[in-house]
Design a protein that fits this description.
By secondary structure, the protein is of the alpha/beta class. It has 14 helices and 19 strands. A hairpin with a 2-residue loop joins strand 2 and strand 3. This is GNAT family N-acetyltransferase.
């Protein structure tokens, strides 16, 4: 008889990027009095430690989520806050060389309490802990019954001791004790927004009985050994007779990059301004930028076709686009080789863009998921604001693309120096692509100055000057470099300096309007 198979009604599996929206919805349902997790936070967790994020699926619905990371014992076994230890919820402090599995969060659908979802998630954590031969599991547990019993138990320590002795039941701490976790010590001001717990937490630990200390002497395999090949195009502005001339010029470089077997080919900011050079007469700036937006459908269609045809991811510089709210914005596009199109608005238009073209600043700042991992786009002036790069890297980006368009050497140097600073601050790669030449019949497109580059952190495994590749000044050409993502992981965990991890999150952090 043939074996019969059926789809299980409930399963525990590792989370994927396709689950992000459902996880956010679940967190909103669970934490009704707080802001739910943002997409960026979940993406950061998945990027930092994909095998450590679990979901429980019941009848095709996500009803549970557990987020974890790895930390060294020295960080776990001392006073800390949730924001500090988790990098604000992004899992940015994940340390692959650590020895403890640390729980960031557990969410259980309140309408599905009888499915033992919490136990399933904690069991998944135990299996992972044992498979990775870690010392144990730790997390900051809540004490939601403390405020309600504060009159009888004057301090959180007294309340915790009463719970431990089973003199009373706490909705969360009693569950953790029953599940085999032991209270290590009280965490003061662990999560200030948790008023029911008085802002306190308790460090709960479970020690792995199968832990083998001998594994600490074994070499650590570097995570993510993939190499990403980048081709950045320094393109010369050229007068064209018809729009197809522009697309022919672009496809030439896409073909070159594909022949180099590149994963990404990058174009400059506002390189589509060349489409205005075939207009019958020169248009004033405001009319010109409005005319340029009319090319958006053709531009996205043709660039998408190139990405698919050449099997390469195209960072399509930027293009003036009229958005759904009627505003004209400077939008960076990513045309991925799977046929998907992603748009990212320039957050900070320059004074010139606002004055001459009435371009408005955008709002969302999020990574783009690609087959080479999450990447970020910062358009020219955006690179001069460190908060943008930090958010993208917190969300998991290890490569940041910066299409730029500058008319003078000092304008170009502002972009270059800031991009190199972003690479050092975040221990990431930053790729720039600029325009050169000029278009006499396109108003406000002055003589262009560019020297495009691919920048790295400054440490031993990278180029001595932090420049993996660079074009000649003001010459149409490409620069090519292979970027090793595992080298970035090494730098963040073992480098001479560890800027990305050594932030004092107990002293400062950036709060975004979406809660990230």
């Amino acid at each position: 008889m043939a074996e019969k198979r059926s789809t299980p009604k409930i399963e525990v599996r590792t989370a994927t990027t396709k689950d992000v929206s459902d996880i956010i919805a679940l967190s909103a349902k669970v934490f009704k009095d707080e802001a739910p997790y943002t997409r960026g936070m979940i993406m950061g967790q998945l990027s930092a430690f994909p095998e450590g994020q679990f979901v429980v699926v019941y009848e095709d619905e996500i009803v549970g989520y557990a987020a974890t990371m790895i930390l060294p014992e020295a960080k776990v076994m001392k006073q800390h806050s949730w924001a500090e230890v988790t990098g604000g919820g992004y899992a940015a402090m994940h340390d692959r060389k650590g020895d403890w599995l640390y729980g960031i969060e557990v969410c259980v659908d309140p309408d599905r309490r009888r499915l033992r979802i919490g136990k399933r998630l904690y069991d998944a954590r135990r299996r992972l802990c044992q498979d990775m031969d870690l010392k144990g599991i730790a997390f900051g547990g809540r004490l939601p019954g403390f405020k309600r019993n504060a009159r009888k138990y004057k301090t959180p320590e007294a309340y915790l001791e009463a719970v431990r002795k089973a003199e009373l039941t706490d909705p969360v701490a009693s569950f953790h004790l029953k599940a085999g976790f032991e209270p290590e010590f009280l965490l003061k001001n662990y999560y200030p927004l948790d008023t029911a717990s008085g802002g306190n937490g308790v460090l709960m630990v479970w020690r792995n009985p199968y832990y083998d200390p001998a594994h600490m002497d074994q070499p650590v395999n570097r995570s993510n050994p993939d190499v990403v090949r980048i081709v950045t195009v320094q393109m010369e502005a050229r007068k064209i007779a018809e729009p197809q001339d522009f697309y022919d010029a672009v496809e030439y470089f896409v073909e070159v990059a594909a022949e180099y077997e590149g994963d990404f080919v990058v174009f400059p900011e506002l390189f589509t301004l060349m489409l205005l050079s075939c207009e019958p007469e020169e248009l004033k700036p405001e009319a010109a930028i409005a005319r340029l937006t009319e090319h958006t459908p053709d531009f996205t269609e043709k660039m998408t076709a190139m990405a698919i045809r050449r099997n390469i991811n195209i960072i399509g510089g930027s293009h003036a686009t009229r958005t759904d709210d009627g505003e004209i914005q400077n939008v960076g596009y990513a045309f991925l080789r799977d046929g998907s199109v992603h748009a990212r608005e320039k957050i900070h238009p320059t004074p010139n863009e606002r004055q001459y073209w009435h371009i408005q600043g955008g709002d969302p700042i999020d990574v783009i998921e690609t087959d080479c991992g999450p990447v970020g786009i910062m358009i020219c002036y955006d690179s001069e604001f460190p908060e943008i790069a930090r958010r993208l890297c917190d969300q998991g980006a290890r490569i940041l693309f910066v299409p730029f368009n500058t008319d003078t050497r000092h304008g170009y140097l502002r972009v270059k120096y800031c991009c190199q600073a972003r690479a050092v601050e975040n221990q990431c790669y930053v790729v720039t692509s600029g325009m050169t030449g000029n278009l006499a019949n396109v108003d406000n497109l002055d003589i262009e100055y560019a020297q495009s580059g691919i920048f790295t952190p400054c440490d031993f495994p990278f180029a001595r000057d932090g420049i993996a590749a660079e074009t000649s000044e003001n010459v149409e050409m490409v620069a090519v470099a292979d970027l090793n993502l595992s080298t970035l992981s090494w730098a963040r965990y073992e480098g001479s300096v560890r800027n990305f991890r050594d932030r004092r999150l107990d002293l400062y952090r950036t709060r975004w309007s979406d809660g990230g």
